[in-house]
Amino acid sequence: MIRNKNRVLIIAVFMILILAACILVFINHNIEFKEVANGKLASDGGEYVYYEIVRENDLSDIYKFSDDLSEYDFDFDNHSYIISFNYEIVNLSYSLISGPVFHSYDHYVPNVRLSSTNDNLCHIYELPKINIDIDPDDYKINVSFDGD
Predict the structure, then answer these.
(1) Rounded to an integer, what distance in angstroms lies between the CA atom of residue 140 and that of residue 52?
(2) For the range 102-107, what are the long-range contacts, defined as Cβ-Cβ under 8 Å and sequence gap of 24 or more?
(3) What string of DSSP letters covers 42-95?
(4) Nearest to 124 by CA among 46, 76, 102
(5) In Å, what is the CA distance from 61 to each residue of 2, 13, 42, 83?
(6) Domain boundaries along the sequence of the chain
């Protein structure tokens, strides 16, 4: 009788640990962010993706999107940055399932919720230093829009 109780207790503890691990892997972790700059998009007629991750070595390309952005002082040692085009970021999160364990690349692909502004602006957002980037195979993955 006591052996059965111990066996049930061990199975229950094991199941709780498995459940906790699944929750940790699949739950979305919200990322705090704030808009730190915006600028009118250059009128070169180019087509833009919804958003891009700003890297320090990409700054010359970022400055080409808008003349208004060259005045912002990026702090890449302590923050990551995202730029969006004609959209405002409403929500930003990631889950551990979208990370390096399950993909051949070494970053998390964020879940990005956007709101269309049609204001012809690019928006720069600052967030805590985190290893996120777009999916190299499909930049639309994990992107949703207000009203969906």
Answers:
(1) 11
(2) 105/133, 105/136, 106/131, 107/131, 107/132, 107/133
(3) PSS-----SEEEE-GGGHHHHHHH-GGGGG----TTTEEEEEEESEEEEEEEE-
(4) 76
(5) 69, 53, 12, 12
(6) 30-145
- Across residues 15-43, what is the average pLDDT? 83
Cβ density class 93-117: b for 16+ within 10 Å, e for less: bbbbbbbeeeeeeebbbbbbbbeee
Cβ partners under 8 Å of residue 23, min gap 6? none
Task: Provide long-range contacts, Cβ within 8 A and 24+ apart, for 73-80.
Answer: 75/126, 77/129, 78/129, 79/126, 79/127, 79/128, 79/129, 80/53, 80/54, 80/126, 80/127, 80/128, 80/129, 80/130, 80/132
pLDDT tens-digit series, residues 94-109: 876 655 444 556 677 8
Q: What are the pLDDT digits (tens) for 46-89?
A: 677 888 888 888 887 788 888 787 778 889 999 999 999 889 99
Length of the chain: 148
Q: Are strands 143-145 and 111-116 parallel, antiparallel or unpaired?
A: parallel
| pTM for the full predicted model | 0.76
